[in-house]
Design a protein that fits this description.
The complex is a heterotrimer of chains A (about 325), B (about 280) and C (about 300). Chain A contains twelve helices and two strands, in the order H-H-E-E-H-H-H-H-H-H-H-H-H-H. Chain B has a domain of about 180 residues: Rossmann fold (3-Layer(aba) Sandwich), CATH 3.40.50. The two termini of chain B are about 15 Å apart. Classes of the chains: A mainly alpha (about 325), B alpha/beta (about 280), C mainly alpha (about 300).
Chain lengths: ~325, ~280, ~300
């Protein structure tokens, strides 16, 4: 403030402003800070553009050599063979298998756990279990991969159940991936159900509905958008998961018809191919990015569906 | 029910002697919706002015347009003139921050900062770059002025959240006067408080009136009658074509006049409890 | 309901409130439902418990000083995790320095200053949500492609890995910071603005400090995710046979998850034991980080 009013008998030296309101207040420093904040936000867009450019440039080179139709619909994936073939279908089917198995495991377990925690568990039990669940969500995927390979496949499937399977299987990778996704689905669904106002439950109970009916007919539909979002997030985590499949699903790219067979997923291929130092610009190098681009597009579509679904089902309460 | 203005200060002039803040054809919009229509009134320096009226009559909206707090609401827009010492608050070159430094605000729910009592008071002077010779003295002086010093002097470093609701609200008033505004806007400051805490705040308002101009929105007619020099009665009018309701100023006069001899039938109905 | 006991007078005798009502809490359907829910929780927790127990059983024999002090070796008896632990610390430290300030700044802009009707800002919001769902390995490809583009030959450097992981966790930090900022009540901001504080002062002196516990929780969780992540680093060819301590941003490195992956893929069972032992170390660190995050959240969670 430009003008200082005469001190009103105050020991503190007041600065009661009587100058013009047009006095400039905002310091130039503030503008700079605001611009910096804005740039930080814009950086996230730069990352997206970076992803698209980084994936597209090598992919364009790739598609100059391999027709896009052959890539998308070809049924033989053998990029390193002398008679190289770039049909991505085997990778896609393996991804579909592992993700599908994972969801079969994760959705019932995750939703069961979420409904129990939100609707049935004593608040104290919930206060104990929820953080444990979140703690488990932090287990790194390499540890899950090790578990899938060394225990689920080698011990449970081969020794205990005596299944006809090799060192790797799509099933082991899928089941363990499902377990990995459980905390995510449970935690987000539980949040969604807990957010349903108590008054809706009381209204249902007042009509004579029991807890199960209230849960299934009132709470579940009200929380549906959150639950669907949790499931979709589970799908995209399954599609994008790398370490478990790289370690336990095997490295042979084939169209998977039996879950006990091994199979290479899209992410599994990228991880394995990256290990063998490919020369920049070579077809092997470009293949990585073409598969990466496909993976990116698939997750983008899943995410788009998720946003649409959440909007459509969002119940206003 | 009749309420008599209990304000002992009978020497309120017919018109504000010094018009510190004036509204001229003030309209406030939220998007396309016009919440307040064509308000003309002047607030007198060192007076307490109460804005009363039924819910939805636009009194809080008008209050928030007096220090540009409405700017913070998405889609809110104010038309007309609001002038402080003749200077339009909504002039393009006026920074709303400069306005708020001169016209402070106390809210409905006490909203102390999640800091110590001391820091709640010191916050304003610090961010405004005031350089008091001693911050400790400023804090003490301010809290004394807000009649809170004796209650909190031994726990200045404790969280303001530990105070009672009434103490929190007086802390918020103290926080406002620490930056030495000219006008203090109060938006139903006692609605969340019990009668004893309310009466302490009313006492405080009467004391502060010597140095500050106060504009208070209240739901409580008795409160207006007890503290205000002037009272403005607002009501909501329904637009016949669109069905939208908008707030209008019905009558603005000395509090004694409003409560004892209102000129408008609607004011009388409201005061006597027949409406609202 | 039990309407069968009508009296002769044609009056309905009121059914006892204690009678079994179809659809009561103790009906067969309800109980089955509850048992199924229990099973869901039980199976989920027990599998995760088995995971931890088998890892412990497999690895504890090798969990000794060698694992912390030794370098990787072709001889499983001599092999250790030392450079991987140091590599992980270097990478995560760099990620923290890069992402926390950037993520908080971006979140502040989006939550406190951005005009929500501005198309570009809405696009940024949508974009952040999308980025959070991009598979981690794609960030590895992004880093690989970028480093190639700017002509970096040695891609397995601390900075490269840190940049890849930073891009991975940045959206997570932005989202959790926004949530923490959103939880600060409007009244705090209004109180500050009404005193004549600028929006920037309000954000930095009131809103941000109030949101620190939430930001800390979100950041620790995000960093722990980066610490456990291997896929993007694999793509960048993080060296797995590092026989030196990483000593800077341009130094070669490996990390704990990469080392575990490498040991798992060796044929000798001794290396699998080593992988399990390394997993215990990694799990202990991650669980400790997550526990700290959860404790911070629960302790400082302010009910406004």
């Amino acid at each position: 403030m430009s003008t200082l009013a005469p001190s009103r008998g105050s020991a503190s030296g007041s600065t009661r402003g009587t100058g013009s309101l047009k006095t400039k207040i905002s310091k130039p420093g503030e503008r700079v800070v605001l611009i910096v904040l804005r740039l930080a936000a814009a950086l996230t867009v730069v990352i997206t553009i970076g992803i698209i450019v980084a994936l597209l440039l090598p992919s364009i080179q790739f598609f100059a050599e391999v027709p896009i139709f052959e890539f998308l619909f070809g049924t033989r994936w053998a990029p390193r063979f002398a008679d190289a073939s770039f049909g991505v279908i085997p990778l896609v089917t393996a991804t579909a298998w592992t993700t599908g198995i994972a969801l079969l495991v994760a959705i019932p377990l995750g939703l069961g756990a979420a409904i129990f925690l939100s609707e049935y568990a004593h608040p104290n039990l919930r206060k104990t279990l929820k953080p444990i669940l979140e703690l488990l969500a932090g287990i790194p995927t390499v540890v899950f991969g090790l578990f899938a390979l060394q225990f689920v496949q080698a011990v449970v499937f081969k020794q205990w159940l005596n299944l006809d399977t090799g060192a790797f299987s799509v099933l082991a990778a899928g089941v363990v991936m499902g377990v990995m996704i459980v905390p995510t689905i449970a935690s987000i669904s539980e949040d969604a159900m807990s957010a349903v106002p108590q008054s809706m439950r009381q209204g249902s109970a007042a009509l004579g509905a029991n807890r199960m009916q209230t849960t299934v007919k009132v709470v579940f539909p009200a929380a549906l958008s959150g639950i669907l979002a949790a499931i979709v997030l589970g799908i995209s985590r399954g599609v994008g998961e790398t370490m478990i499949v790289a370690m336990a699903a095997g490295g042979q790219a084939q169209i998977v018809t039996n879950p006990l067979d091994q199979g290479q997923t899209m992410t599994g291929f990228i991880a394995n191919a990256a290990l063998g130092d490919s020369r920049v610009g070579s077809i092997e190098y470009n293949t990585l990015f073409a598969v990466g681009l496909l993976l990116f597009v698939i997750t983008l579509i899943i995410n788009y569906i998720s946003i649409r679904v959440v909007r459509k089902f969002r119940e206003a309460y | 029910m009749t309420i008599h203005a209990m304000n002992s200060n009978l020497s309120v002039p017919e018109q504000p002697a010094q018009r510190i803040l004036e509204c001229e054809k003030v309209n406030v919009f939220y998007g396309d919706y016009r919440a307040v229509t064509d308000v003309n009134m002047a607030f007198g320096q060192n007076e307490i002015t109460a804005l009363i009226g039924p819910s939805g009559c636009g009194k809080s909206t008008l209050l928030r347009s007096l220090n540009r707090m409405n700017d913070l609401i998405d889609g809110a827009r104010t038309e007309g003139l609001v002038t402080l010492h003749g200077e339009n608050l909504y002039d393009k070159e006026v920074d709303p921050i400069a306005v708020r430094r001169r016209i402070g605000m106390v809210f409905q729910k006490p909203n102390p900062f999640p800091k110590s009592i001391y820091d709640n008071i010191a916050y304003g002077p610090r961010v405004l770059g005031m350089k008091p010779s001693s911050m400790d003295d400023l804090v003490e002086e301010t809290l004394t002025r807000a009649a809170l010093w004796d209650e909190v002097k031994d726990k200045l470093k404790q969280s303001a959240f530990g105070l009672s609701g009434g103490q929190q609200q007086r802390l918020c008033i103290a926080r406002t006067i620490a930056v030495q505004p000219e006008i203090i806007l109060m938006d139903e400051p006692c609605s969340a408080l019990d009668p004893i805490a309310t009466s302490r705040i009313e006492d405080l308002m009467r004391e502060l009136r010597e140095d500050y101009t106060i504009v208070i929105v209240t739901h409580n007619m008795q409160q207006a009658a007890r503290v205000a020099d002037r009272t403005a009665f607002f009501t909501a009018l329904q637009d016949e074509t669109t069905g939208n309701r908008t707030g209008v100023l019905v009558e603005y006069d000395k509090t004694t006049k409003i409560f004892e001899d209102p000129s408008d039938q609607r004011t009388e109905d409201y005061i006597s409890g027949r409406f609202g | 309901m039990a309407f069968s006991n009508m009296s002769l007078g044609g009056q309905i005798q009121k059914a006892s409130l204690k009678g079994r009502v179809r659809g009561s809490e103790s009906s067969a359907k309800s109980i089955t439902f509850l048992i199924l829910l229990w099973l869901g929780l039980l199976i989920a927790f027990s599998v995760l418990l088995v995971l931890i127990v088998t890892t412990l059983l497999d690895g504890y024999t090798r969990l000794d000083a060698r694992i912390f002090t030794n370098y990787p070796s072709a001889n499983p008896e001599k092999a250790g995790l030392r450079p991987a632990i140091l590599g992980s610390l270097w990478v995560i430290g760099t990620v923290a320095v890069l992402t926390i300030p950037l993520g908080v700044a971006a979140a502040l802009h989006l939550e406190e200053f951005a005009n929500k009707h501005n198309r570009f800002n809405r696009f940024i919001e949508l974009n952040v949500q999308n980025l959070a769902a991009v598979p981690s390995i794609v960030y590895g490809l992004l880093a690989l492609g970028t480093l190639t583009l700017i002509g970096v030959k040695e891609k397995n450097i601390v900075l490269g890995g840190a940049v890849a992981l930073s891009m991975l966790v940045l959206p997570v930090i932005v989202i959790s910071t926004r949530e923490a900022l959103r939880a600060v009540p409007m009244e705090i901001r209004q109180g500050s603005l009404a005193l004549g504080a600028t929006p920037l002062q309000t954000a930095f002196r009131q809103t941000l400090p109030s949101a620190v516990p939430g930001i800390a929780t979100g950041s620790i969780l995000a960093l722990s995710r980066a610490l456990g992540e291997a896929a993007p680093l694999l793509v960048l060819g993080a060296l797995v046979f590092v026989r030196f301590d990483p000593n800077g941003l341009l130094s070669g490195y490996t990390t704990m998850p990469i080392q575990i992956f490498n040991w798992t893929s060796r044929p000798q069972p001794e290396f699998h034991v080593l992988a399990a032992a390394a997993s215990i170390v990694l799990l202990a660190i991650l669980i400790a980080m997550n526990a700290v995050a959860i404790i911070i959240r629960n302790r400082y969670q302010r009910r406004w």
